[in-house]
Hints:
With 243 residues, the protein is α+β, with helices and mostly antiparallel strands. 21% of the residues lie in helices and 20% in strands. It is built from 4 helices and 12 strands. The chain has helices at residues 3-27, 51-54, 75-92, 237-240, and strands spanning 110-111, 117-124, 130-137, 143-145, 150-153, 172-174, 179-185, 197-199, 202-205, 212-213, 222-224, 229-230. Strand 2 (117-124) and strand 3 (130-137) form a beta hairpin. The longest helix is centred in the N-terminal third of the chain and has 25 residues, at 3-27. Pfam families: DUF4232. Residues 32-122 are annotated as: Disordered. InterPro entries: DUF4232. It comes from Streptomyces chlorus.
Amino acid sequence: MSARTHRTRVFAAAAFAAAALTLTACSNGEGVHDEGAPAGSASTPAPASSPEASGGTPTGAGQTDPAGWASGDSIGGAAGSSGTTGATGSSGSAGSSGSAGSKDPASASTPCSSTSTRMTATEVSRPLNHLLLTVTNTGSKNCDLIGYPAVRFGEAQSVPPAFEDSKPQAVVTLAPGESGYAGVLLSAADGGGSNGYTAKSLAVFFNDGAGTARPSLPAKGVYVDDSIGVSYWQSTMADALAW
């Protein structure tokens, strides 16, 4: 091989190597111009999901929701609180069962008796020939005046009947310190009664065997005949003396 031919081959190899280096540089992005994405193909960033849209609760420091709840408080939690309040209210209604519990001792009624009352017998001018019995509750509890007083004057062997029309619609209940009344018709106003006599002592029997009271009579005594009768216990003097 001649020297000229050899130089020609060396030169060609060098030229080829240079071309190869140029192509390699182009393929590595050097000197290549990015024309960008085709028109209309640009992607739109996905919107960040908001707590309102996703049903979540703001959690940023110091952030509050429109209802004024502090950050970290959920509306669901608030509803739970109100639910708890409702439960408390319903349990409070059980307190109504407390009304069926023990009563105030002063409100529990027992029959009035000779040991828990004081009785007086007063002769009145009107109506004629009447005696007024007054019973006062001296105890610490309410008591009931049941029925009518069974009165016995002097040595009488029987008690007079009651005027049935005087029976009240309800039992007379006396609170401590209160008084009840009964009227006694001693004799006929026109003097037409029979078997009259003057009595100087009186015994009054409470109903239900609750004892006997012995109120004092006037020193001169009271005149009694077969017309005698008594009223049921009343809450007022006027009602007691109406018979």
